[in-house]
Every structure is written in structure tokens, then in C-alpha cells.
Amino acid sequence: MTTHATHTSLGLDSRKMAFWAFIGSECLLFTSLISTYLVYKGKSVVGPYPHEILNIPFTSVSTFDLLMSSLMMVLALAAVQRGDMKWGKIWLFSTALLGLVFLGGQVIEFTEFVHKGLTLQTNLFGCTFFVLTGTHGAHVTVGVLWLLTLWVRALQGKLTSAHATTVEISGLYWHFVDVVWIVIFTVVYLIQ
Amino acid sequence: MNPPAASAAFAAPAAHVTHGPVGIRGWLTTTDHKRIGLLYFWTAFSFFLIGGVEALFIRAQLAQPNGHLVTAETYNQLFTMHGTTMVFLALMPLSASFFNYIVPLQIGARDVAFPRLNAFSYWVFLLGGLFLNASWLVGPLFHAGRLNVAPDGGWFGYANLTERQFSPGPNIDFWLLGLQILGISSLAAGFNFIVTILNLRAPGMRMMRVPVFTWMTLVTQFLVITAFPVITVGLVFLMFDRFFGTHFYVSQAGATPILWQHLFWLFGHPEVYILILPAMGIVSDVLPTFARKPLFGYTVVVYSGVLIGFMGWGVWSHHMFSVGLGPIADSVFSATTMLIAVPTGVKIFNWIATLWGGDIRGTTALHFAVGFIAMFIIGGLSGVTHASPPTDLQQTDTYYVVAHIHYVLFGGTIMGLFAGIYYWWPKMTGRLLSETLGKWHFWLQFVGMNVAFFPMHLIGLLGMPRRVYTYSPELGVSDLNLLSTIGAFLIALSILVFVVNLLRSRTHGQRAGNDPWGGATLEWSIPSPPPVYNFSVIPTVANRLPRWKTEHHEPMRDPPAAPPGPIHVPGGSWWPMLAAFGLPILALAPLTHTLWLAFVGAAVLLAGIYLWAFEPFEV
Amino acid sequence: MRLRLWFLTAALALSGCGGPFPQSTLHPRSDFARATDVLFTDIFWWAAAVFVVVEALLVVALIRFRHREGRPAPKPTHGHTLMEIAWTLAPAAILVFVAVPTVRTIFATAGEAPADAVKVEVIGHQWWWEFRYLDLGLTTANELHLPVGKPVRIAITSADVIHSFWIPRLGGKRDAIPGKTNYIAFRADSTGDYSGQCAEFCGASHGNMRLRVIVDSDSGFGAWAQAQLSAAATPAKGGLAQQGKTVYGRSACIGCHAIQGVSSGVIGPNLTHIASRTTIASGLFPNDSSHLASWIADAPALKPGAIMTRMKPPLTDADIAAIIAYLQTLK
User: Fold this and answer.
1) In angstroms, rounded to a whole number, what is the distance separating the alpha carbons of residues A118 and A111?
2) Which strand (E) or helix (H) includes residue C152?
3) CA B457, CA B483: separation in Å to the nearest integer?
4) Is B157 helix (H, G, I), strand (E, B) or coil?
5) Cβ-count burial of C285 within 10 angstroms (0-12 exposed, 13-18 middle, 19+ buried)?
6) Chains meeting C at 3+ CB pairs closer than 8 A?
7) Per-position DSSP letters for A37-102, written without gaps between them
């Protein structure tokens, strides 16, 4: 990816601006999914119901894991910005790893739910929950792929402090995905 | 003036002006906004013709009561495809062709912020449109007759008719998958143009100096990136209901089909502003040029456009007055709907005041701009009758609302787009369109549309619902329907005249030169068509009407004919097109119930994206 | 209003039964329809005034300021704050004059009715209308009978997809939504026959989902209700109708249709008093032998998508004639 200094009317890097617009758009996406969850809350005709299934302690751990991954991301960006690619690689990989752990946790959690009788088709809780968290999980997956790509580029010596903006944008994405999870965790798990 | 290095665009030194690859390859790999604009134009115009033919079949069927030109099933596909095609494959992309071609020129840029993303948007649009329309032909592949599997649930696809139980065939699958593909095209373009307009303006081009067309484009793109995610979610829910057995819209599971309506109209109302604002922008640029007077109340026109963008989010349930949301909700949405009529109406007065006191030259472009105003007044007023729920309960879902939408979308958007075509075609091709043929086109279209759509007000008030494949002679609307059909064919004739004009102009059109109209804005300061780099030197702008002499300033000096030094122009790229192909392949997986196609589609998409990301591409 | 009506009637060809324009919204025949018509007239004249003024300004501008040789360059006015404020406030004021009666009418027509109103439950099906008079305990289809001058409250829902219940002369429409009940209330103010139609796209035969409304005098309505509640007629022994009842009883008809004491299907319209209806196939055809014959022989050919498919093996012409004879005894 080429980078170059260009004058812009607002003084902001165009790619960063585009990414903020993208995040704005994604906010509408998740708002629609979360709103649907809320509108259908309590309307399931059959169980299992949230209070029977959701495991707050377990999910708190995955939430913590995702929060920690955001910290790793901050450290990764700082390292790349100061040209310290040794630590840049470590932190980039750690972020992706913690993201994978989160996804692993989702897999375990969803498998448990299926065993307890909650699937996409079971009831409204099932379809709204799985589509919402599944969409979020897909976003995490894309993020993990993105971070691993950057990590591989760094291994190849092709990622340097000149690419700090690229890493910053990937960080923006990662933090956004984390913030969305906080909202989902609060709305779905904590407020029942 | 400004050395290229300090410009808002391409800055790398030591490369020569290039034109990229030539021939077919040049077009397939183009990242040049001007070429992409032309590609959008020809593709969108073709879909416009297809949508028009669908309309002619509809009108031919309705010319008489108890008509049997087409079966009920075919009719339902015809009106669904007419609506879907016109909204998503004709009107939006025709506007996009001007966003692409004209906006960078108006702001003094060399291209958009992300040229390859721009190309991606186009290819996804083309492939999405082909995907959707393939449904007309591929019936036999689904063990059905030809003309049997095109979408048939209306362009608005209300649940729960669209559930698998009530629409078992692949028709709705084509629709929901096609729309998701098209949504990605619009979203990508939305991000691109927001950044372009905010970030790539020439020095001195403050936001309040930007031409109104570019301003309206900006507002439109914000509406796109916020509204499309909502319908995407609605479509995803429908897709899950149809393919994975969920119950998002099934009342027996505790859900409600009304959720679809909320999601659809939360998108749908901003969508109508997405459809009208660009045309309003065109009219706001065309009128001053031919009245030889600045736009009256530029600030108000801009702010009212922005205000409409925001307020457009608060009116969606005026499409749902018959759903029974309750008197309080109905009253609130009635109030917000009436409120939004104010900034909309104000623009009309600004336009008339622009003409007032001017020195009006009656070019074809001006005719269409004035036609827009005249027809939009009628469409807007019928809209006000819809804003009152009790009266709307007699009008909604009848031909009265069909009249309303066609006055605003045909009399409004399409007339506005034609104004843009007659205005900017010379800039895009270097040739003027014939004024004689243009006037014939205008008058045939103007008369045709009023003959076609005005009777529909009465047809609706006399009790004919919409979306019916036939009607009883008892209703007493047979003659009016026949009249409407005649009007439709008059419109078709007018379009034929236009096509002749378009094709003739390529060889017989008078050469346009830089500025055939005496325009005030930057696009008229460069050759027609512009060189690949647009501006030999990026101008510095000091006011809103740079090319005019006003009481405050002299006209700007146009950029020199040749650039003072080498200008780097990015080459083409195959990867946006490759990535674009991933999407319809992905969509084929659920359509044909073939899982491995999803992996292929994802792989193609990913490959395209990776190759794109790592391609050396100097913007 | 009267002027407009006269002009309409004079200008257009009249046709058909039920009087001219049987589904017209401009010929209100109930308090509900009248209230919305008054409001529409009000808004219409405001709109007409705005139309005339604004279009006139446009036309005058175009004529007066068209290019003429030797004309001096126009004055470059950029705006005029006072004028802009005025033409923002004026439309806003007009809208207030529209909004106030609008809100009043919304609440006045919100479907409330006194407790002694005739209550009818309307259930939309693809593509016919089921009517249940809950207080009277009777079920019928496609033709709604109502008493003149008495309050009526209609509860509307759907058994399958979204439909919309609309009798234009008696008032505006409300959607028939599965899982929800919407209400319309009105008082019809003259006897007569009215027609209505489904007004929400509901599939292949949306255009064919019609209904008739017969507003009767009080006693007429009472007599009709009595007749509907009576037992299904028993055909004379040995006649064609008796044969028809036998054919009916051994055909697939009984799976979908109910005839009191004979069959209890709920998928299609209740046929216990089918001969009392003026039309068949949800208002599509007159209720006579030839139409009944075509309908029974091949309903989907007449009403695309109808689930009343051709029988397998098909009924013979003799069978159909017998069934028709039987049905025609079911007054």
C-alpha cells in the first residue's frame, strides 16, 4: 500500500476520513440489529429464555479478553509509530490472538446454547441473538484477518512506521468492534 | 498558478501525463472518474429503457378493464421490476454518473479520493443489475417457465408475503440478494464522495462556495451511508427467514411483519430524498446559468437541503398510516411530514426568484429545469394531501399515490436528470445535443407525462387500488386508464427522440468548446471533454461564481491549455472488477442452494481485495 | 365540492351497476367517509390555491424575463432576507391550518364506537374476505351486510399475509395484518350497494380480492341475519339438488368449505347461505349458473393462484350441474 503526503481540504488523511464515515454507517447497521433485539425482547412464544441460558460470568471473561485486545492494539500502534517493529509485531499478533480467543469463546458459548435447545430457529430470542452476535463475530473475524495480514507484512519487513496510518485505521476498526461488543454485552446480557 | 505538488490531488513528480491503457482494456480497468461516469450513464440509461418497457407493458395491460395481455403472475413481476429497476438501476445510477463526472470538476480536483473504489462501485452496480434482471430469463433453470421467476413482491417487498411460505419460488431470493449487492455499490460510492467533497476541494473552495449540485451530492451520500445499512438489516432478516428458518417477520412466533415496514421505510424515506436532492442540485446549477443571475438565496437552498437530509429521518411512518400505529403516532408523523414540506417548498420560491429579473435563454436544459419545478409543485402538493392520515387512508395504496410518486420521480428527478444531461453532455463528450430535437423531446415528454399521470389522481380517488393486474369496468375508470396509457406511449416516443438526439450528437453535434453556456462554475473552465488530468493547473478559487464577473470580482483566468509540468495520472486496475465479481458469485450460493459457491465467491472477493490492497497505485 | 362532483360525473362515461363510481372516495356515504372528505376538500382547496399562485409566478417569470436583444445584464440579486422569511412562514402557516383539523379528524376516526355497535370481525385470506358477526354468532364471506344509521365497528385482521380492508364510499382503509387487529367504526347514512377491494398487495390475485357491502334498513338487516342463522336448506328428495349434495359430500369441496350440518372446512368461504349472495369468488362474478360452473370447473383459471384447484379426477359436467343445483338451494 502506498502512502504519500497530500494536502487535503480538512487536513485529515482521506483514508481516515473514509473510515470514520464507514464507522458511522456501521453504527446504523448495529443499531438496527440491537433495536430489533430490543423490540422482540420478551416476545418469544417458547423458551429457552435469556435468563435460562446466558452465562454472564463466562461472557464477562470474553468481554475482558476483547478489552485487553484493544489495549494490545493501542500498544501495537504506538510501537509502529515509533518504528519499533519488534514490538509492533508482538502486539499486532497479540491483538489478533486475543481476537481469536474471543471468537473461540463465542463458539463454545453458542455450542452450549444449541445443546440447551436454543438455535436460530427456536424462537425470537434465538434468531435476534444469533444474528446480532453472529454479525458482530463476523466483524471480529474480518478484524483478525486484517491484523494477521498486517503482522505477516511486518514479518516480511514490508510494514514500517511509514504505514502508521494504515495501522491506525485498523486500530480504529478494532476499537469500534470492541465498543459494539460492550453495547451488546450490556443490552443483551447485563440488562435482562 | 499553483504548482501541482501543492494541489489537492496527484503530486508525485517525475512521471509523464499518461492516459492509462487504451481500448477495451482501458475501459475495463479504468479508474478515471470521467470514464466511470460515462459507464454509469450508459448502463443506467439502458436499465432506464428496460424499466420503461416494463412500464409500457403495465400500461398496455391496464388500457382496458379485464385486460389479458399478460397473466397476473407476469404482471406482478412487471410492476416489481419496474419499480426496483427505476429506483436502483436507473435513477440512482444516472445521478451517480453526474456525481462521478461533474463533482470532481466542480471542486477543482483531478479525480475522486479513491479511484479504484469508484471503479469497484461501478462494477458491483453492473453485476447487481445483471443479477436482478437475469431473473427474467432463467426460469427454466429453476424448473419454471421463462418470465416466471423475476421478483414479484413489489419493489417494497412487504413481509410476510415475501416469506417462503407465501412466495416459495426463487423470485424474492433474486430480489433480496440483488438488492444487497447493489447496496454495497452505493455504500462504497457514498464513502468515496463524502471524502472527495470534504477533502479534495481546490484551494479557496470553502464549503459555502461549493456549487449546489456538489452540496446536494454530499447530503445525498450521507443519506446513503446511513439509510442503506437499515434496509440491509431488513433484507438479512428476510434472507434468514427464507433460508435458515428464522421467524423475524412471522406473527405466530411472536414477531410482526410490521418490523419489515419500519426497517424498509426508515431506509425508504431517506431514499426518496436520495432520489430527489441530486436533481434539485442540478436545477440549482442550471437555472442561474440560463437566467444569467446568481442563485437566489444560495445559503438557504444549501441549508434547506441539509435540513431535509436530517428531517427525512423523522417521517418514515407516513408510509404506514393504514397500518394502525395509533392516533398519537399518526399525529406525530403527520406533523413531521408537514414540517418537512417547508424546506422543500422554500427551494421552489428560491428557484422562481432566480428566474425573476433574469435574462432567460430557453435552452433545452432550461426547459427541463423549469419542467422540474412545474411538475414538482404538483407532486409536492399531492404529497401534502398524503401528509394528513385521514385523507391518506383514502389515497394510500391507490392510483392517487402512484400519481404522486410519478410526479415527483418522473416530473421531478427524471426531468432534473435530463436538464443535467442537456447541460453537461457537451462537457462530457465535446458535442452539443441538438436543441431542435431537444425541444421536441421536452414537449413530448412534458405532455406525455401529464397525460399519463394526471388522470391517476382521479383514478385513485374513484377507488382503483394500485398493484392490481386488472380492474372491473364497473369502477368507471376505464377511459381514464386508456388516457393514461396513451400518455405512457407518448413518453416512450419522447425518449425515442432523445435517443436519436444522443446518438446523432456523437457525429453531428456541434462542437461545444470549453464553455457553450457561459457557466459560472469550474467545470466550464476546462476543455470539453476534459483532458485526463482535468485541470492543467489546479485553480485557486476566491468566490462562489469564479467564472463570472460580478459586482465584487472579475472572472477567473481559465487554466492554461497545457500543463506547466508533468502530471501523474494513475493507471488502471483489474482488481476492483475482480473483487466485484465475488459478490454475485456469493449471492448465487443461496440462490442455487450450493454451498461451495459461497466459498468461491468469498475467495474471489478476498483475492480481489488483497491484490487491490497490495497493488502499487499512486493516487 | 358539489361543483367538482358534477363536473366529474358530466365529464366521464358512466358504466356498471352500483351506480356510477361504486368505489369512489368522492361520494361519501358514512360519517367516517364524510369526515375525511371534508378534510380532503379543505386541503385540496389550499393546495389548488398554492398551485395557481406558484405556477403563475413561474409562468410570469418565464414570459416577462425571457431573453430579448438589447436587454441589460440582470441585477445579480443574491437574496432578500425579508422575502425569504415571508415565504417560509406563509407555507408553514397554511400547514397549521391543515394540521389542526387533521389531528382532530385522526382522533375522531380512531375506530371507537358505542357498546351497542354492530360488531363484525373481518379476516382477510388470500384472496377472499371472511366476516364473523360475533354478537349474532354468524359467519359469512365476501358480502357484508350492515344496518343503515347504526354504529358499526369492524375489527380487521388476517389469516395469512397483509391485506387491506377498504370500502371507499364508507371510509378509509385499514390494513389486515396477521397477529394484529385494526378497527374502523362508522355509521352508514344511506341504504345501497357498495363495493370495496383489498388495497395491499397480497400476491397473485390481489386485484381479484373484492367485496360487496349491502347497507340495509334496520328490519332488512334483521331479516338477513335471521336467514343467515337458519339451518342449511335440505334439498327435495330425488331432485338434482339432492344429487348435488351427494356429489358435494364425496368431493374434495368438504375439505375447505363449511355448509352447516354437511361439512366443516375452514380454508375457504362458508357456503351455508351462498345462494343469498349476489356475487361469487369474492365479488368477481355474478352468482349465476354459468359463472358457478366455470368457477367450480377451474377456479385458478379465473383467479390466478386460487388454491381451489381443479379436482383430480375432474368433476364431470353433470356433477357440476348437480352441485350448482344444490348450492342454489342454500339461500
Assistant:
1) 9
2) strand C151-158
3) 13
4) coil
5) middle
6) B
7) HHHTTT--SSS--HHHH--HHHHHHHHHHHHHHHHHHHHHHHHHHTT-HHHHHHHHHHHHHHHHHH
Q: Which residue stretches of B9-91 are H helix? A: 23-28, 33-62, 72-84
Strand C151-158 to strand C118-125: parallel, antiparallel, or no bridges (unpaired)?
parallel
**A149: which chain B residues are within 8 Å (Cβ-Cβ)?**
610
To the nearest 10 degrees (0 to 180), the angle between helices B478-508 and B435-461 is 160
Interchain pair C51, B352: CB under 8 A:
no
The neighbouring-strand residues paired with C196 are C211
Question: Is B476 in the C-facing interface, judged by CB distances under 8 Å?
Answer: yes
pLDDT at B6 > cutoff 90: no
Q: What is the pTM of this model?
A: 0.95
Please give the order of strands across the beta sheet that includes C128-133.
C138-141, C128-133, C118-125, C151-158, C182-187
Chain C contact for B329 (CB, 8 A cutoff)? no
What integer is the mean pLDDT of C113-131?
A: 96
Q: How far apart are the first and last CA of chain B?
A: 22
Residue C305 CB contacts under 8 Å (≥ 6 apart), including other chains: B72, B73, C126, C127, C203, C204, C205
- pLDDT for res B145: 86
Catalytic residue among B80, B186, B364, B505: B186
Q: What is the ipTM of this complex?
A: 0.96
Helix (H), strand (E) at residue C302: helix C299-302
Give catalytic status of residue B505 as yes or no. Answer: no
> Which pLDDT tens digit goes with each residue over B115-153?
999 999 999 999 999 999 999 999 999 999 888 999 999
**Contact criterion met (CB < 8 Å) for B618 and A1:** no
Q: Which residues contact B262 (CB under 8 A, 6 or more apart)?
A: B316, B317, B320
Q: What is the DSSP letter of B91?
A: I
**pLDDT tens for residues B542-587?**
999 999 998 889 999 999 989 999 888 888 999 999 999 999 999 9
